[in-house]
Amino acid sequence: MQNCQGNGRPDKEYENWRWKPSQCDLPRFDANKFLELMRGKTLAFVGDSVARNQMESLMCLLWQAKVPVNRGNKQMQRWYFKSTSVMIVRIWSSWLVHQTSEKLDFAQEGIAKLHLDVPHEKFMEFTPGFDVIVISSGHWFAKQSVYVLNNEIVGGQLWWPDSSRPMKVNNIEAFGISVETSLTALATHPNFTGLTIVRSFSPDHYEGGVWNTGGSCTGKVKPLAAGELVENGFTDIMHKKQVIGFERASKKITNKSKLRLMDITEIFSYRHDGHPGPYRSPDPNKITQRGPDGRPPPQDCLHWCMPGPVDTWNELVLEIIRREFEGKQSASS
């Protein structure tokens, strides 16, 4: 879905732009170095479809050096690199917290109830087996759901049937609570000693609407230049809430695990050229041009082209892992 060249995107320049930090060097991704640093270890991506996008980018980068064996099952995707005994895992968790659909108080059956103070058991049960967790979320908080704290309904998104009741928690606050809940659960898990990397909120670049109301990023072939960045209030507040949740969880660590923030939000706000846009599927009959009425074709301005900007996220992951593991490996070997 994010193979933009394979799906017919005509321009290629977006593949070549690369973020350069001002205070340090970010080395290019070295697949063999990654596999050596992760020897005998498991890395898990936990999150939504943008987490899947990052996992697939990592797999494409590693595949240049070694071909893995598919060991996936119904619960998770798993790829195993035999030469270094490295496992790459992906677990779907759209909200990172416990979710139910049964009727609860005045919320009908069927609609998603998010228990914001309970971490998602789907990834928590496997946590002790992970050495590195790359965790992310956020975009599902725009979808319809009910917010529950302490088994009491406190808010909702695109749902609040009783205007006479005050809503205590909106979707942005719910996101912040969910981040603190999930990260605190990892930071206090008695059997987790790994490294948690929190990938910050991924900016989208829909203009003139959102994904289902004619939003578009067609024709963006270069990153924004310094000074051209348009403030996105939703992205900014989501990022802020996520950072606050991260900081609060950092103060509660009781186990031997480490918590690191990988902040990509502002940097990748410049990359409006890095999304599939209308080249979002291999379908040869997909519409890629505006209609006679000027309406843009359906498009994806949320996920990232591969190859493309998302590969830099994995360069950052490798650098964080290198800083955490490199000295310790040589000291213990």
From TrEMBL:
Domain Trichome birefringence-like N-terminal: 2-25
Major subcellular site: membrane
Cross-referenced Pfam families: PC-Esterase, PMR5N
Assigned GO CC terms: Golgi apparatus; membrane
Entry's Gene Ontology molecular function annotations: O-acetyltransferase activity
Superkingdom of the source species: Eukaryota
Keyword set includes Thylakoid: no
Membrane topology: Single-pass membrane protein
Entries under InterPro entries matching the protein: TBL (IPR029962), TBL_C (IPR026057), TBL_N (IPR025846)
Trichome birefringence-like C-terminal domain: residues covered: 26-319
Region (Disordered) location: 273-301
Keywords from the UniProt entry: Membrane, Signal-anchor, Transmembrane, Transmembrane helix
Cellular location(s): Membrane
Similarity field: Belongs to the PC-esterase family. TBL subfamily.
PANTHER family: PROTEIN TRICHOME BIREFRINGENCE-LIKE 18, PROTEIN TRICHOME BIREFRINGENCE-LIKE 9-RELATED
Name of the molecule in the record: Trichome birefringence-like N-terminal domain-containing protein
Organism the protein comes from: Rubroshorea leprosula
Biological classification of the source: Eukaryota, Viridiplantae, Streptophyta, Embryophyta, Tracheophyta
